[in-house]
Amino acid sequence: MRRTVSAAIAAAGLALSAVAFAAAPVPTGTYKVDAAHSGAFFEVGHLGGVSRFMGRFNDIAGDLVVDAPEKSKISVTIKTDSIDSNHEGLDKHLKSPDFFNAVQFPTMTFTSSAVKLDANGAGTIAGNLTLRGVTKPVTFQLRQVGAGKGMKGEQRVGYVATGTIKRTDFGMGYGVPGAATDEVDLRINIEGVKQ
Q1: How far is CA 29 from its chain centroid?
Q2: pTM for this structure?
Q3: What does the alpha-carbon distance between residue 84 and residue 193 come to, in Å, rounded to a whole number?
Q4: Does the first or last residue of the chain, that is N or C, have fewer Cβ atoms within 10 Å of its Cβ?
Q5: Which residues lie across from 28 on neighbouring strands?
Q6: Is residue 181 helix, strand or coil?
């Protein structure tokens, strides 16, 4: 009898812990991406995988509709000219036709087609990524980071999306695989402000 009661108490404790760590409720509505607190990052293997190299894009904009998962959506636009590798010469090369071709293709975009999130705020987001004029379906892992009020009382929400693409799928084959690996890991940190 004591074991049964102890097991029941332990199970109740685990259930309460799960509820305590569930994702914070997010008020439904339309949110605007806060560019100052959002970012798009990439990581690629350098010299065929000798090391890992990271960079980011500094100009990101977009909108989120937060609702039930089947009604939620996001669209993000990133200016390719805002690439930042922390090295001026490399940035110039990355903006060239060898890579992002920022003059001909000044933006890359992601538009969601399906969002799936569980009670803990973890799931996936599928959609279309357009890069260098090529559009491909991609799926990212999605995690709700948090929700709450900003310094002026405005409602805010945060998400992180991660995934891997092949740059050759988007016509970016320069230096594969000797200079840099084909696979590129992406991470998009989004903080949205309710409109």
Answers
A1: 20
A2: 0.84
A3: 25
A4: N
A5: none
A6: strand
